[in-house]
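Researcher: I'm preparing a figure for a lab meeting and need a structural model of a single chain. I don't have an experimental structure, so a prediction will have to do for now. The sequence is pasted below. Please return the structure as C-alpha cells so I can convert it later.
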Amino acid sequence: MAAMQNAFQTVALIGKYMNPEMRAHILALADFLLQRGVLVLVEDKTAVQSDITAYPTVAMDQIGLTADLAVVLGGDGTMLTVARALAQHKIPLVGVNRGRFGFLTDVSSDTMLDAMARILAGEFSTEQRMLLVAAIMRQGQLVSEGQALNDVVINKDGLARLIELEVNIDGQFVHRQRSDGLILATPTGTTAYSLSAGGPILHPTLDAIALVPICPHTLSNRPIAIHGNSKVVVTVIQSQDARVHFDGQHQVSLQPGDQVLVQRAPCSVCLLHPQGHSHYGMLRDKLGWG
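Model: Understood. Here is the structure written out cell by cell.
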C-alpha cells in the first residue's frame, strides 16, 4: 500500500516506561506501519528504555510538530501524561491498552494491528476531550499551575483530620464543606477517582465538570455537575496537610487561605477510535455490566 493512500503519513510511537513487555509490541506495530509505507518515529525515552535503535527517534515536545498521529502503548496513566504534553499541538492520539482498565487506551494489544489497518484506511472516529487548568494562588500571588485530563483533586495528605473548603462557582458562594477533599473532574475523569468517590459517569462529549466531595462529614453534601465554562474557586479554610493533585501525577502542597482556581483549559485532547467504537460498550466491558 502506498504511503499516499494512508490517512496518516507519519506516526509516532510512545510506550510505557520501564515495562520489559513493551518492546515486542512497539516493534510489531512499527514493522506493521513501515510495511504500509508509513514513516515511523519512536519517542526518544521510549527508544532508550526499550532498546530500540532501528527507527528514528523524536523528543516528546517535537511529536506534535513532526507526526500526524501518536500511538500510546501502555495504560491510562501513560495516556494522561502524553495527552497533557501534546494537547497544544492538537495531534490525534490512539491508545493501545497494556495496563489495567484502559478507559483511555481502548484498543486491545491483541487487536492492535487490525485496528491500525482500519485507522490507516480512514475508518475511525475522533473525540475532543476537555482539559482543566488550575492555578494555585497564595496571598494574591501565583504559586503553581497545572493541567488535568482526568481531574484536579484537593485532599488531605496523611492526617486523619478533615479539611475545610469553601467553594465558589462563577462568583457565587456554593457552600463550605468539611471532608477528606474535593474532586473536580472532566467527563473523561468521571470513570477515574470520581467514580470511586460516588460521582456520576458523564459521557465524554458532555460540556460539564463534576464536583465530587470525598467522604464529606455532612452526608447531604452530594456530587454536582456544572457547565464546562464555569470558573470554580476553592479556598482552603482549615487544613494542616492539604494538597492539590493533577491527574494523580503531580501535586502541590496547600496552606490555609490558598485558593485553587479551576476552569476549562484553552486546548483540548483529540482521541481517535477505530470505527465502531462504543462508549457504552466500553463501560459495559470495563465495569462488568450485564
